[in-house]
Design a protein that fits this description.
The termini are far apart. The longest helix is centred in the N-terminal third of the chain and has 18 residues. With about 300 residues, this protein is mainly beta. The strands form two sheets. The chain has a 20-stranded mixed beta sheet that branches. A two-stranded antiparallel sheet has the order 7-8. The chain is about 10% helix and about 50% strand. The radius of gyration is 23 Å and the shape is globular. It has one domain.
């Protein structure tokens, strides 16, 4: 009986691996020029991650890790025929977007539309992971939908707009006005210098973790159905119209352990959009969440 069970298990594993017996894995790399030195990038991906890195160059370096799998060669042929990466100039910005057999990109609405109703069945699965190097001062709008993280690092620009439907968002060593939206995962932001313009953070089922530089001044608007606001900033520097309640969380316990120090818990009325001044106030930060918490804390300036 034991031998039979083992043989059955092996057979099931082999069968599952054989379901997608055909696959393509490759990495492509190319460069693209910005129009008239206008460093502005908009990138849209359906399946896969997006990573954007600032560097000292003047052009965009676009690397794509492509992974396609299918049950048979016919499926691979279908994928090769249908999946397209478009790199173009549109309304003064560099535009990168993926299209496949079920989805096309509407240039007027700047969003994806379905080709068919109902969506037809494809014979393949795929994932395209983008790594794009851009000049440090590039304005970025990045949008991901499935099966990937969205990461931006070392970018100091006027604005950063990021949307990830089913993955996390990580903005590391960035500056500028930020508009970040995640549906099911966390948003993590580390500023290289304190913001001078309003920023917006929206999450449905994740936390929003923001690191600012010591001495931060701002006006905080917070709304969460089932979450709370935590900060490492001295409670005496936080002004609000509601009661401040100190609740200690150690560095090695609780869901705030990644903050690494005792936090001050601000008791906020649910479903309210209350203003909190930090120090004498400054640029606005808007947080809107359903089930998550906000962790705002100060760090030393990044070298």
């Amino acid at each position: 009986m034991k031998l039979s069970a083992l043989l059955l298990t092996i057979a099931l594993i082999l069968a599952s691996n054989a379901i997608y017996a055909q696959e393509i894995q490759e990495t492509t790399k190319e460069t693209a020029q910005f129009t008239n030195g206008n460093h502005n990038l908009s990138i849209h991906n359906i399946y896969g991650s997006i990573t954007i890195e600032g560097y000292e160059g003047a052009e965009a370096i676009i690397e794509i890790d492509k992974y396609i799998k299918a049950k048979a060669k016919k499926g691979l042929d279908q994928a090769i025929d249908e999946i397209k990466v478009n790199i173009t100039q549109h309304d003064g910005r560099m535009l990168i977007y993926v299209e496949d057999g079920n989805n096309y990109f509407d240039l007027k609405k700047m969003t994806y539309q379905s080709r068919n109703m109902p969506i037809r069945k494809t014979r393949y699965k795929y994932r395209y992971d983008f790594t794009v190097k851009v000049p440090y001062d590039t304005e970025v709008a990045a949008h991901a939908i499935n099966d990937g993280e969205l990461v931006i690092k070392d970018v100091a620009s006027e604005s950063i707009i990021v949307n990830n439907l089913n993955g996390s968002i990580a903005l590391n060593n960035v500056s500028g006005a930020i508009d970040a939206n995640a549906l099911n995962k966390d948003i993590d932001v580390t500023y290289s210098k304190n913001p001078s313009k309003a920023s917006y953070f929206n999450a449905l089922n994740g936390d929003v973790n923001v690191k600012v530089i010591k001495g931060f001044k701002g006006d905080i608007f917070f709304k969460s159905m089932n979450g709370d606001f935590y900060t490492s900033i001295d409670e005496n520097l936080v002004k609000s119209m509601t009661t401040t309640e100190k609740d200690e969380w150690s560095a090695n316990s609780g869901k705030n352990k990644k903050v690494g120090k005792v936090l001050t818990k601000l008791k906020i009325k649910l479903n309210s959009n209350q203003k909190y001044e930090i120090r004498e106030g400054g640029p606005e930060m808007h947080f809107s969440l359903l089930n998550g918490d906000v962790n705002l804390y100060e760090i030393d300036r990044i070298n």
